[in-house]
């Protein structure tokens, strides 16, 4: 769970609430006005303690105090996801974050699979599998150069669909494709010369 940062609509006092309480109304401790916790659009870590925070887009580039470590932070303009393998911070635009929320992406530095956290308070879960590949996926590795003569699988790959189960595929840095639904890893290569 992360903390949502927002401001009172009347007195502009900086407020924070755990995302498990989104959708509820609260009384502002300063002006006693009933305030509604807004839906967050940005997800980012605190620059001081690393805890997960979120905020509505209209608060980007504003200064806040982290509710956990009480250090001053500036809310970024983009969502920031941290790769657990190499600790690089990956910046995602609002639209790209909304598209990937609850799914995975490949780290641009180390090519590790990174889980993109779902949008806090988003009630509709995305149909996705966990961020790791199932055990025994290696026996399902297929060579795509054997399929290139048939245009249907090629067209499906170009539209980011698995030619076997029609699920979404992910393109890795080495230009191989991963289907998390059926566990296949597909690579395009050249056949050895005879």
Overview of this protein structure:
This protein has 194 residues and is mainly beta. It folds into two domains: 3-115, no CATH class; 137-187, no CATH class. It contains two helices and 16 strands. The chain has helices at 94-100, 151-158, and strands at 3-7, 14-18, 25-27, 34-36, 42-45, 52-55, 63-65, 72-74, 79-82, 89-92, 104-106, 113-115, 142-143, 169-171, 176-179, 185-187. The strands form six sheets. It has a four-stranded mixed sheet, with no helix packed on it. It has a four-stranded mixed sheet with strand order 13-16-15-14, with no helix packed on it. Strands 3-4 form a two-stranded antiparallel sheet. A hairpin with a 6-residue loop joins strand 5 (42-45) and strand 6 (52-55). The N and C termini lie far apart (58 Å). Mean pLDDT is 78; it is low at 125-131, 147-151 and 190-194.
Layout of SSEs?
Layout: E1 3-7, E2 14-18, E3 25-27, E4 34-36, E5 42-45, E6 52-55, E7 63-65, E8 72-74, E9 79-82, E10 89-92, H1 94-100, E11 104-106, E12 113-115, E13 142-143, H2 151-158, E14 169-171, E15 176-179, E16 185-187
Parallel strand pairs: 1-6, 13-16
Antiparallel strand pairs: 1-2, 3-4, 5-6, 7-8, 9-10, 11-12, 14-15, 15-16
């Amino acid at each position: 769970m992360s903390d949502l940062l927002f401001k009172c609509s009347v007195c502009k006092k900086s407020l924070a609430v755990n995302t498990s309480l989104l959708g509820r109304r609260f009384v502002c401790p300063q002006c006693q006005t009933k305030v509604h916790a807004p839906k967050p659009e940005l997800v980012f870590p605190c620059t001081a303690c690393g805890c997960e925070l979120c905020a509505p887009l209209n608060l980007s580039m504003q200064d806040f105090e982290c509710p956990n470590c009480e250090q001053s932070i500036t809310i970024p303009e983009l969502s920031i996801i941290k790769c657990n393998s190499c600790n690089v911070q990956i910046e995602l635009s609002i639209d790209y974050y909304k598209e990937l929320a609850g799914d995975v992406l490949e780290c641009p530095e180390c090519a590790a699979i990174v889980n993109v956290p779902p949008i806090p308070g988003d009630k509709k879960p995305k149909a996705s599998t966990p961020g790791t590949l199932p055990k025994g996926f290696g026996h399902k590795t297929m060579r795509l150069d054997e399929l290139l003569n048939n245009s249907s699988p090629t067209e499906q790959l170009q539209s980011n669909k698995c030619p076997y189960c029609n699920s979404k595929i992910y393109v890795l840095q080495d230009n191989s494709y991963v289907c998390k639904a059926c566990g296949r890893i597909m690579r395009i290569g050249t056949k050895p010369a005879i």
